[in-house]
Amino acid sequence: MKRILAWIGVNIDILVALTVAIIVSALDIAGIATAEAVSNATVATLAVLAFVMLRSRMRAESAENVVEQAIVAADRKIDLLPSRLQEQSAARLVKGEEFNRLLADARLDTDRWIFKGSTGAYVRAVTLPECLGRARQGRRALLVRLEILDPNDIHLCERFVRLHQSLALSADGPESTWTGDGTRMELYATVLSACWHHQRYELLDVEIGFSSIASTFRYELSSRYMFITQRGPDFPATVITGNALALDCWATELHASMRQARSLDIRRGAAVTLSSPPTVEEVRTLFERLDLALPETYGDDDVDEIIRTAFKNSDPYDKAAWG
């Protein structure tokens, strides 16, 4: 009934014209209506029909305009779709300058940096100082979690070197100069740097874990980005952003991995005040307190090299250094 009433409401003018035409025709046939009445009724009916046709045409033109505008808007959205899909994609491959740009953007306002890799050279030289500088400016907390190779396992360090030397692009590549002991010194430098920064910023929370597995991959997670990389920015890297579920999944994975690593209690080193830069004696005492004593074969020159490496803020990729 509602549909019938609605149809009648929309077509009432047509029904009126049709009713008038039928009544006048019947009266004319019966000889009741005069010729003048029939003529007037015919004119009125034609006027109603003309109005109906005009209204229908206006509605059609209006509908065409709406459809045309919708098509134009759809075309614009389709044109923008590839770039927006690229921006909002959960995962994509990048390298070179784009990779560096995204890394820099990830460091802008993050409240965390979770790393799983080998020596953490880039984090030590670039990421940690920059993130700390921004955290200081905003007087906000910063969580840094590092899962790196175990420096007490020299055989692990040597396996790491052999792995990357076997994957080197050329026999005279930068990997050819790597050694197991050099890798171990890089690891000590990362620990020293983390302890030094931890003493100088109360809102810095540092966790360090030592892995027993040498891998070609490196994982880094900020508050808005996830990076999965191999050797340097010239190699394709997987970047995940704009997808909270994917970032949460990776955060869970890295958390689980960290809990299976050998944990270093960095708080044990708080009793050793580190100068700027630390002295050889301070560094030796620090590692003893951390239960990570330096090898007995290390002389003062070796400890000095660890100190220089720990506070060298140049980008290690400029010289194809460690990862």
From TrEMBL:
Q: What are the UniProt keywords, alphabetically?
A: Membrane, Transmembrane, Transmembrane helix
Transmembrane stretches in the record are: 12-31, 37-54
What's this protein's name? Uncharacterized protein
* UniProt source species: Nonomuraea endophytica
